[in-house]
# Entry
Amino acid sequence: MPGIVRVEMADPRGRGRRIPIWLYRPARFTPEGRIVIVMHGLRRDASAYCEAWAPEAERHGLLVAAPEFAEEYYPGVHEYNYGDVLSGDGHPQPRSQWLFPIIDPIFDFIRHAAGVERQTFCLYGHSAGGQFVHRLVSLAWSPRIELAISANAGSYSLPRFDVDYPFGLGGTGLPPSALPGLLARPLVVLVGDRDNDPDHCNLPRHSEAMRQGPHRFARGRYYVDAARQAAAAAGVALRWRLAVAPGVGHSNAGMAPFAARLCAEFQIESPQG
# Structure
């Protein structure tokens, strides 16, 4: 049946954590249709994200799934925005405890719950969710991802190993030899050209984040420029790209039409490592 439904799954990493997921299935969706996993922002308001995406899902025939990572189980930026790669005191966590790899089990749960056959999905995140998505692309890529879209992130993990995580890749255990592969992954950095308020209440203000630019619009461009420089230095092609949503500020609802179109029109080229 079309419309929004709520389902719930257990975090496979244990500790009794539960993950509600809001699903929107458009009326004309088919079992082979495209799926978009939508990652919420700081407010952990997955249901609102799903509602904002519903008109676009209907327009493009997309199944939308918005998991909710509640503060109760995933407190603060370390557990969510940064993917639990480092503990709150900065110590490396075992990969088995990272949050990023949970996306594949969520996708499998969605496929079963919604009765879909497609084996791959698009991944989108806005604000804190945009931070989550671009870090996953670098550190915990899944070949099941068709396209990743990081929208209006407040800070970025630059593709540099001389900058420590979460503002670079230093200290993550990722070897520099992995750089060409991660630069070849299909990532769109989507920024609203009016997300340019240097005094926005939730804008990260760590010194490392401030070096990336005075506001989110500037930081998105800085991140892609850093990737271009890294690709040129390594002599490899860059598959990441910058996309600008004109007239949009810090708003998931404003970004959803642009992101949905990117997902709907994306053409799969070849599996990426």
